[in-house]
Design goal:
Length: about 230
């Protein structure tokens, strides 16, 4: 087995450990993915709920606030991630002290992911039965209680689906960030595999990213099925 690995994946074996090896790249990808997901998830959830409740049909309609927030979300969603990395470079350096490496990628990853998740949250919660919301209002529940006990509770399966989709998208963004100095498996695939013509490194990097995607998708599907039952 070891002989076959050495024969078919010689560059993978050479680059597996060390400061710039696969072990570090896997850690960097996981670090960027889950730290960014935590912050973007909280920010996106808040923004998504704000969009939901301040809409004209929401429980706290506010036309001007909704208009501004909606346009900001659309704006940040429309900026290509590679361009966003460059544009907010000074802001990133101000926040985390650097613009390269996994930590330097966190700020653009959060700002690139939060608006996407916010829109997903809005779309997921708007599917909650309006009759249930109206019944809660008739019972005199406060807006906060309606958000927590009606929207979030009834829309939880759809929220998990949205979170899974967002996390998979975020994994793709970490690979893109890695290709431009962020580290991780994206860096391994491009800087080591592609630029050095070490095709086995590129292929294994891709496979590892796909494995991470499949794990996230599998966990998301499992949780949704449990909640629906």
């Amino acid at each position: 087995m070891e002989h076959l690995i050495q024969q078919w994946l010689p560059n993978v074996v050479t680059n597996w450990s060390g400061d710039n090896g696969f072990e570090i790249a896997i850690y960097q990808t996981l670090y960027m993915t889950f730290v960014s997901a935590a912050f973007a998830g909280i920010l996106g959830l808040i923004l998504g709920i704000a969009l939901l409740v301040t809409d004209s049909k929401g429980i706290l309609p506010h036309k001007k606030f909704y208009y501004v927030l909606d346009k900001l979300v659309n704006l940040f969603r429309s900026i290509p991630f590679v361009v966003l990395l460059a544009v907010i470079g000074p802001f990133t350096k101000l926040i985390v002290g650097q613009t390269i490496g996994p930590t330097g990628a966190l700020v653009p990853l959060i700002l690139g992911t939060a608006p996407f998740f916010a829109r997903q949250v809005q779309l997921a919660l708007v599917e909650v039965d309006p009759g249930v919301v109206e019944a809660a209002q008739a019972m005199g529940l406060s807006p906060w209680k309606i958000i927590v006990h009606v929207y979030l509770k009834e829309g939880l399966p759809e929220l998990i689906r949205s979170a899974t989709l967002t996390l998979i998208s975020l994994i793709g963004l970490t690979a893109m960030a890695g290709a431009v100095g962020g580290g991780g498996l994206g860096n391994m695939a491009i800087a080591v595999g592609y630029q050095r013509f070490e095709n086995d490194v590129t292929i294994v990097s891709m496979i590892l990213i796909l494995i991470l995607v499949f794990i996230v998708q599998g966990i998301g599907d499992f949780v949704v099925k449990k909640l629906q039952h």
